[in-house]
């Protein structure tokens, strides 16, 4: 009788152990498959479908301001910080970015020859990027800033990559007035 109890205990422990190993392996594989599939939410949007981002909602102003500040500090620190945001930005987004950049930065106006033109940015969970054209007297190159953060901490630039491509010099963009009022709390985050 004691032998049969030992045999049942051994078989039961083996069965439970093998099921836990299989369950752990399954959980690990599902976690690894689901972690890298979320697309970046970009502004301007890559397409009419997909995830939408509102540039006046956190962390978008932080991503834009941090990217502009770091590209300026690393690429052209001896020039004033003059910036241009993408067309279609609301006045609220422009104000939030200006507040985060500080009083030394200013928006681009016609006639500026040295400026940073933020062309687009994207955010996904704890990662973000920004494509910024750096212009100096009609000559420009593209810089892609990669940013990362830990959970609710501020974004930090982890990498800058320069691309020397042919671009046409942009005109100053102006904020869209009153567009922030058209988004209700029900539609924040995009269509479900």
What order do the helices and strands come in, and which of them pair?
Elements: H1 2-35, E1 41-43, H2 60-75, E2 82-84, H3 91-101, E3 106-107, E4 114-124, E5 127-136, E6 139-148, E7 156-163
Parallel strand pairs: 2-3, 2-4
Antiparallel strand pairs: 1-4, 4-5, 5-6, 6-7
Helix pairs in contact: 2-3
Question: Could you explain the architecture of this structure?
Answer:
- It is built from three helices and seven strands.
- It is elongated and about 95 Å long.
- With about 190 residues, it is of the alpha/beta class.
- Strands 1, 2, 3, 4, 5, 6 and 7 form a seven-stranded mixed sheet that branches.
- The N and C termini lie far apart (about 60 Å).
- The model is unreliable at about 180-190 (pLDDT under 50).
- The protein has two domains: about 1-35; about 40-175, Nuclear Transport Factor 2, Chain: A (Roll), CATH 3.10.450.
Relevant terms:
192 residues, elongated, disordered C terminus, alpha/beta
CATH architecture assignment name of the largest domain: Roll
- Major β-sheet profile: 7 strands, mixed
CATH topology of the largest domain: Nuclear Transport Factor 2, Chain: A
Q: Spell out the helices and strands N to C.
A: HEHEHEEEEE
Q: In total, how many domains does the architecture comprise?
A: 2
For the secondary structure, the number of strands is: 7
Percent range for β-strand residues: 15-25%
């Amino acid at each position: 009788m004691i032998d049969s109890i030992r045999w049942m205990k051994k078989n039961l422990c083996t069965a439970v152990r093998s099921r836990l190993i299989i369950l752990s392996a399954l959980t690990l594989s599902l976690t690894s498959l689901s972690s890298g599939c979320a697309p970046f939410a970009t502004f301007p949007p890559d397409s009419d479908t997909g995830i939408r981002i509102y540039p006046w909602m956190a962390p978008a102003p932080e991503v834009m301001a941090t990217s502009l500040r770091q590209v300026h500090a690393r690429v052209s620190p001896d020039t004033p910080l003059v910036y241009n945001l993408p067309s279609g930005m609301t006045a609220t987004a422009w104000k939030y970015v200006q507040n985060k950049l500080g009083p030394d930065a200013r928006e681009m106006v016609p006639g500026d020859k040295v400026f940073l033109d933020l062309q687009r940015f994207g955010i996904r969970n704890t990662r973000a990027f920004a494509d910024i054209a750096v212009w100096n007297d009609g000559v420009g190159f593209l810089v892609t800033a990669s940013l990362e953060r830990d959970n609710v901490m501020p974004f930090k630039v982890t990498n800058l990559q320069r691309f020397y491509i042919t671009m046409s010099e942009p005109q100053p963009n102006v904020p869209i007035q009153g567009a922030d009022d058209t988004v209700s709390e029900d539609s924040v985050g995009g269509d479900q």
